[in-house]
Amino acid sequence: MNETSREQRLSRVFVALADTLADDFDVIDLLHTLCERSVELLQADAAGLLLADPRSRLQVMASTTEKANLLELFVLQNDEGPCLDCYATGQQMVNIDLNEVAERWPRFRAATVALGYDSTHALPLRLRGQVIGVLNLFCTDRSTLSDADVELGQALCDIATVGLLQERTVRRSELLAEQLQSALNSRILIEQAKGVLSERAGIGVADAFTLLRTHARRNQLQLGVVAAAVIDGTLAASALTTSNR
Length: 245
What we know:
Layout: H1 3-19, H2 27-42, E1 46-52, E2 58-63, H3 66-78, H4 82-89, E3 93-97, H5 106-114, E4 119-127, E5 130-139, H6 147-165, H7 173-201, H8 205-218, H9 223-232, H10 237-243
Antiparallel strand pairs: 1-2, 1-5, 3-4, 4-5
């Protein structure tokens, strides 16, 4: 990627993320945008994002592929992986060659390699010492991020963190807890809606999510609202597939 092209893409990415910081922004859309743009700019093959719930337990909130989603769930179920260390310490865990961590994270290494990844990176969502989540990047080849790449990835994470912790929306800790719990509830609805839409429209779950997200953006609706409408049948699959052509 030449320098001009990279600068143009960076500008578009920061504008896209800034657009999500308006009042009543969609948390799920923000996190998916962060994952997608991080994959694009840092030349990863997939990304996943874990966010702490009100009890400080990490939950899978966004991913760019189903494989990344499965791997994130595996990490949480087995309580093992660099992302957990990243969350616990607030420190970046980058340039991890999976051939070199068999003793440290044996189950994580086995699962990650089985899904076709050779290296991984974990960046914290943090602000002034408060860590609220982790962005994970997965690469099919051995990937090395430069210092500039790490700074860029962290900057993207920082923007998302500011969006979640912005003062005008979250003035007290209980409001933060409510916001994160609401995002988690929306995530559960979205996962259910993906399955429902996939079955009704005869498409893959990734395509189902694209339809949900496109419809939400086009009609300025929260993803959770669209998901709930699909689940209860008030928004037909045919309406989604027709309107998103």
